[in-house]
Write a structure and sequence with these properties.
By secondary structure, the chain is of the alpha/beta class. It has 7 helices and 7 strands. Bound molecules: S-adenosylmethionine.
Length: 205
């Protein structure tokens, strides 16, 4: 991956994704998480302060060692036990039906084989479980979509394979999830091509 991907990018993500405007979205997406949680794309643990008390433990899946190191202070000030148990959302080291809830925040854009990652989440969630997500993706407006297609090659190079045009809800439905809550919006203060967000809850069959 190289020094940029391993050392620099996780630090950029830690700052960019830690901005105040993002916190309210983290609060919303974490609301309702409970029991055993798997968080795919844990990053630097920016969701840790928002885990509700009903969360008993978290299995963190994250390839970037630097992200995990940057999470240390947040983990130290949290009562929720978090274990880094895997490096790749495409292959979760968890038994079938073992998690009550799951969390992804701005991660489905980056996982190379996102369809496989979603099938893995579906596999490890208990029946009646829930995947809480907030993701940027394909915009609802054609004019914004055109910019997304133009910018995507650059975005992928600069941000470690991050796609701008993934249709989050379509991908979730394609993996067999039912969407039970959904809010779509352009994130304030972010160019529309980068901030076409979907925040919600998806249920496995
Ligand atoms: C934009 S960052 C978001 C980080 C974090 N979820 C947040 O909200 O701050 C995308 C994250 O996905 C992680 N990632 C990339 N490929 C992955 C994979 N195959 N499995 C799990 N996570 C992955 C990256 O290392 C990075 O931490």
């Amino acid at each position: 991956m190289g020094i940029y991907g391993e050392q620099v990018l996780p630090r950029i993500v830690n700052v960019a994704c830690g901005m105040k405007v993002v916190r309210e979205q983290r609060q919303r997406v974490c609301d309702g998480l409970h029991g055993q949680v798997v968080e795919v794309g844990f990053g630097s643990g920016l969701n840790v302060p928002f885990y509700p008390d009903a969360v008993s433990s978290v299995v963190a899946i994250e390839p970037a060692d630097v992200g995990w190191k940057l999470a240390a202070k947040r983990l130290a000030s949290s009562n929720v036990p978090v274990e880094r148990s895997g490096l790749d959302g495409q292959s979760l080291p968890l038994a079938n039906d073992s998690c009550d809830t799951a969390l992804t925040t701005w991660t489905l854009c980056t996982i190379p084989d996102v369809e496989t990652a979603l099938l893995e989440l579906r596999r490890v969630l208990k029946p009646g479980g829930a995947l809480h997500f907030v993701e940027h993706g394909l915009a609802p407006d054609d004019s914004v979509r055109r910019w997304q297609h133009r910018l995507e090659p650059i975005q992928k190079r600069v941000f470690g394979g991050c796609h701008l045009t993934r249709p989050t809800v379509g991908l979730l439905k394609g993996a067999g999830f039912t969407i039970s809550e959904l809010d779509t919006y352009y994130e304030k203060g972010v160019p529309k091509a980068l901030g076409a967000n979907s925040l919600g809850v998806a249920r496995p069959p």
